[in-house]
Each structure stands twice: as structure tokens, then as C-alpha cells.
């Protein structure tokens, strides 16, 4: 019998997260104050985040201990399984060996609880009573609701309108774990009212929802804000994925040549790839790490490396990032988790230094990839995950053409059980190729008012 699944036991759940900043040749640039354009200190984040997370955000310590309470919660679904995709390999007729790490086994159905749990834990420890956040497809909102429910913290979620309308059951899931959910833009915040006044029919965006959540958190002392991607501490928590995958690939007697993951703000990509990049840094290996993004929101492949705001209204500090501009509202594609204008500072620096790669796929291509995967491997992927699968298929086909048997590992970061509307639209031909034109990209970039970053 072929061994399809490589599992670890609970005692093998890593005890420390890996902080890639310690190994980066060029460290990420600091956040800037939007008024003075001077680097801002860690203390300016304290209205929004608990101290422990701010310390992790600016830490350059290579390994950071995972608290016991967090590991205990992790053990509900971790270690997650790693599979060999024999059936998809066969369907593609490729000599490549394809492996995937499956994060859809978490209670919320994606990798997001890996950071929601420690974020809720540190907030609880510092006496926080309520956490506000945004959510795109609802994955992050459900993960944070689950974590807040466990630690007894109130949770308030601003859900991007297009997803709120497309995915009503994600909202119910959040309600079940005790969270309050608002369609964003809402009339609950000044930011929301401002956006609605200028564009009453907007489909919403992650940037807008972040503005709303940040505004609410800044209003009250007992309320903090949580972000499900982009920031350094979020990427740090997600390295649990890759640290397990390194052990599992060793058990399988394999080392990946290529590591692939879908890319929204960079958390699941960082989670799986950083522990392999560590091998590149420490052992001089040349494992290629590829981030897969939608052609309708191509900040990595067609954006610019600039300081920009993390939200639409401009309430956050300026962050160094590959961006399409913070006012960009991506087309309402079904992969809601990838509809974000920018990329995290660490990933942006790695891309600029050519230590990682990026690739964009159109909407039709990604659903074709997801359907092939579901039919061969059985698991129905989240539409976001389909972007990674599209890259895997391209690389596997290249192996076939070139007659080389590479080992490919990808992150199946979530299941698509709440995404039947997306698959239904695909089957009824409603999913159309959507790609930004050169003119649209040029217009977006021309709108950026923030300073350029010299090479
Ligand atoms: C949130 C999410 C993403 C995108 O966010 P990243 O921070 O880039 O990982 C991708 N896939 C799924 C399933 C998600 O929930």
C-alpha cells in the first residue's frame, strides 16, 4: 500500500515559532508616521495591540516560545496531516512528486486559527475585554471568533460586503462562537459612513473593513484590534505550518525543490515557506518558494514596492509593501481572502531581494485547478487555495515537458465547504477571466501619494 498521509503525534507539535527576521540579509524597513514620515516606535501600536504582540512584531530573536496554553489549543487540530497527491500526479501524468500540507482540519477550516489562538491568548493575559477585526471571505472572522470564545473575549467582526452576501453561513458560524458581525462598509463607523457616502453600492474591500475595525478599537481602552495577516507577528505564528512540514517531509524521506502557497497578505505562504527558506539561509539550499495571487489583484507581480497604508481610509502607519495602492477595490472575485491591495513588509522585502517568487493566475484557471484537485484527491479546496494549486499544476506540467521529477510541496490552507456558491458559479459559466489592464495598473500606481523607496 502506498503511504498517502504522513502524520506526527501531539508531542511533535513544535514548541517554538521561527522568526525569519533573524536570518534575513536585509531586514524589513520600519513603519513610518504618515505625517512626519519618520520611523515610528513600537509604543505607537499600543492603542491597537497588546504588549506581548508588539514585542513579537519588532523582535529579531530567531526562536520564540509557544505558550503551553496555546500549544494545548493547537492540539485540537495540530499537527495537521501532510499528504502525497498520488492521484493528481497520475491525472497530470507528471513525474513530479506532489505533497500538500492540509490546514483545513482546524475548527474554522483554515490556517487562520494558528494565529487567532495566540492573539486571543495574549490579549486575555493583558486584560482586554473586546477585540475588533475585519474579515474577507469569513475565514479570519471565524477563526478569531473561535479563539475569543475560548478565552472569554467579546469579538466584533467587519465582514466585506461581497462575502457577507455570498457566504451567509460564515456569518452564522461566527455568531455561533459568540461574535457580532457587520456587513462592511457599515453605518456603525465614521469610516464606513464616509465610504458609503462616496460609493453607496461598493462591494467593500479588506482595506475598508480594516478602517472600520481600527476605528472601533481606537475608541475604547478595553478594546484592541486583531489582524489576520500581513503583520510580522501573524507570519511568525503561522510558521508552525512549515515547522511541522519540515519534520513530515523528513519522515517521507524527501526535500521539496519548490514550495507553493496562495497569497493574500502573506500569512499562509510565510507559514509554510519560512522554515524552508531557513534551510536556504543556513545550509545554502536553493528551495524555490512561489506565492500565487489572483490576476485581478496582482500586487506582487505588477504592483510597486512603496510605503503605503494598510487600510483604505489611511488610519494605519505607512508600511513598506508591494502594493496596488490602498484605495484599490479589487473585483469581487470569490477568493475573498486574496482581495487585499498590499503584501506584508517581510514578504515584500524577500520578494524585492529575489529570495522568493510570485505568480498570478486568472479566475477560470484557478477553478479548473480546484476542480481537478477535488476530483483526484477528494478534498474540496477553498477558492484561495486553488491559486496555489494552479501554480502546482504549471510546475508539474513543466516537469513533464522537461522529464524531470521535482518534489513540490504546497499549502492547502483551507477547505471550501462554505464556498459552494463559488463552485456553482463556476459550473454555470458565471466565472469569467478577470485581469487588470496595464492602463488600470498604471492609473492605480499614479494615484499613490506616498514616498518611493530608493533601491
Ligand atoms: C485568509 C486566507 C488566505 C489569504 O491570506 P494569507 O494571509 O495570505 O494566508 C488564503 N487562503 C485562505 C483559506 C484564507 O483563509
From TrEMBL:
A Pfam family matched in the record: PALP
Enzyme class (EC, first level): lyase
Domain Tryptophan synthase beta chain-like PALP: start-end pairs: 77-414
A GO CC term assigned to this protein in UniProt: cytoplasm
Keyword Zinc annotated: no
This protein's record includes keyword Lyase: yes
GO MF terms, alphabetically ordered: L-serine hydro-lyase (adding indole, L-tryptophan-forming) activity; pyridoxal phosphate binding; tryptophan synthase activity
Gene3D superfamilies from the UniProt entry: 3.40.50.1100
Annotated catalysed reactions: (1S,2R)-1-C-(indol-3-yl)glycerol 3-phosphate + L-serine = D-glyceraldehyde 3-phosphate + L-tryptophan + H2O
Pathway recorded for this protein: Amino-acid biosynthesis; L-tryptophan biosynthesis; L-tryptophan from chorismate: step 5/5
EC identifiers of the protein: 4.2.1.20
Cofactor(s) the protein requires to work: pyridoxal 5'-phosphate
InterPro entries: Trp_synth_b-like, Trp_synth_b_CS, Trp_synth_beta/beta-like, TrpB-like_PALP, TrpB-like_PALP_sf
Keywords: Amino-acid biosynthesis, Aromatic amino acid biosynthesis, Lyase, Pyridoxal phosphate, Tryptophan biosynthesis
PROSITE patterns: TRP_SYNTHASE_BETA
PANTHER family: TRYPTOPHAN SYNTHASE (PTHR48077:SF6), TRYPTOPHAN SYNTHASE-RELATED (PTHR48077)
Protein family per UniProt: Belongs to the TrpB family.
Subunit structure: Tetramer of two alpha and two beta chains.
Name of the featured protein: tryptophan synthase
Source species of the chain: Potamilus streckersoni
Lineage of origin: Eukaryota, Metazoa, Spiralia, Lophotrochozoa, Mollusca
Amino acid at each position: 500500500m502506498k503511504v498517502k498521509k504522513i502524520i506526527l503525534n501531539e508531542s511533535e507539535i513544535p514548541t517554538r515559532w521561527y522568526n525569519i527576521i533573524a536570518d534575513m540579509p536585509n531586514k524589513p524597513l520600519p513603519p513610518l508616521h504618515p505625517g512626519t514620515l519618520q520611523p515610528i516606535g513600537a509604543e505607537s501600536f499600543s492603542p491597537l495591540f497588546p504588549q506581548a504582540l508588539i514585542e513579537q512584531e519588532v523582535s529579531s530573536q530567531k526562536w520564540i516560545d509557544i505558550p503551553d496554553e496555546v500549544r494545548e489549543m493547537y492540539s485540537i487540530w495540530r499537527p495537521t496531516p501532510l499528504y502525497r497527491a498520488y492521484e493528481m500526479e497520475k491525472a497530470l501524468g507528471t513525474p513530479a512528486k506532489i505533497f500538500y500540507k492540509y490546514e483545513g482540519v482546524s475548527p474554522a477550516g483554515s490556517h487562520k486559527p494558528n494565529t487567532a489562538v495566540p492573539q486571543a491568548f495574549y490579549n486575555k493575559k493583558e486584560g482586554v475585554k473586546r477585540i475588533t477585526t475585519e474579515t474577507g471571505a469569513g475565514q479570519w472572522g471565524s477563526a478569531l471568533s473561535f479563539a475569543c470564545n475560548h478565552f472569554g473575549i467579546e469579538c466584533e467582526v467587519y465582514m466585506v460586503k461581497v462575502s457577507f452576501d455570498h457566504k451567509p453561513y460564515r456569518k452564522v458560524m461566527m455568531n455561533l462562537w459568540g461574535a457580532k458581525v457587520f456587513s462592511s462598509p457599515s453605518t456603525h463607523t465614521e469610516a464606513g459612513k464616509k465610504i458609503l457616502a462616496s460609493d453607496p453600492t461598493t462591494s467593500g474591500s479588506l482595506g475598508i473593513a480594516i478602517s472600520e475595525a481600527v476605528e472601533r478599537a481606537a475608541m475604547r481602552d478595553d478594546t484592541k484590534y486583531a489582524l489576520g495577516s500581513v503583520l510580522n507577528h501573524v507570519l511568525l505564528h503561522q510558521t508552525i505550518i512549515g515547522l511541522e512540514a519540515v519534520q513530515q517531509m523528513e519522515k517521507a524521506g524527501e526535500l521539496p525543490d519548490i514550495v507553493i502557497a496562495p497569497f493574500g497578505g502573506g500569512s499562509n505562504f510565510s507559514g509554510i515557506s519560512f522554515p524552508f527558506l531557513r534551510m536556504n539561509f543556513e545550509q545554502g539550499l536553493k528551495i524555490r518558494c512561489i506565492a500565487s495571487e489572483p490576476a485581478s489583484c496582482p500586487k506582487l507581480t505588477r504592483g510597486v514596492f512603496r510605503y503605503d497604508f494598510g487600510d483604505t481610509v489611511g488610519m494605519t502607519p505607512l508600511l513598506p509593501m508591494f502594493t496596488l495602492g490602498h484605495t484599490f477595490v479589487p473585483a469581487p472575485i470569490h477568493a475573498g481572502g486574496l482581495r487585499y491591495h498590499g503584501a506584508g513588509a517581510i514578504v515584500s522585502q524577500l520578494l524585492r531581494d529575489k529570495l522568493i517568487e510570485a505568480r498570478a493566475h486568472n479566475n477560470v484557471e484557478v477553478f479548473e485547478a480546484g476542480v481537478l484537485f477535488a476530483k483526484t484527491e477528494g478534498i474540496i479546496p477553498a477558492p484561495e487555495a486553488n491559486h496555489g494549486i494552479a501554480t502546482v499544476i504549471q510546475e508539474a506540467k513543466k516537469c513533464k515537458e522537461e522529464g524531470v521529477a521535482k518534489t513540490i510541496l504546497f499549502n492547502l490552507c483551507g477547505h471550501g465547504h462554505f464556498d459552494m456558491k463559488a463552485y456553482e458559479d463556476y459550473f454555470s459559466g458565471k466565472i469569467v477571466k478577470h485581469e487588470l489592464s496595464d492602463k488600470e495598473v498604471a492609473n492605480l500606481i499614479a494615484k499613490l501619494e506616498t514616498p518611493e523607496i530608493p533601491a
